[in-house]
Protein: Olfactory receptor 1078
Amino acid sequence: MYFFLSNLSFIDICLTSTTIPKMLMSIQTRSNVITYAGCITQMFFFLFFVTLDDFLLTVMAYDSSHSSATASVMYTVVTPMLNPFIYSLRNKDVKRALRSFLWKKTIKGSTFLILKKCAC
Structure:
């Protein structure tokens, strides 16, 4: 990611350096004249660096979305699947049934589990 950020900052510096020097010279000399060759050269480099900037931002977005694929699966698939269970735990009857089920399972497996009573 630092590779992309360093290249992005370099491209942004190059992008601003294609127009700012001519603008500053035009302000200082109070002359808005530019030659045809100068205009074509400035437009070429401006469009070149804008296109390069867009491609680099696209690659950076793809890289960050690819690395966070697990998190996006968690938020889009697992969390909605667990929401009904989480919200059903607010119901006292469901809590009581879950406690009795877990209590029976722990006694059957000869493992004792101390369940704290919830103040509901």
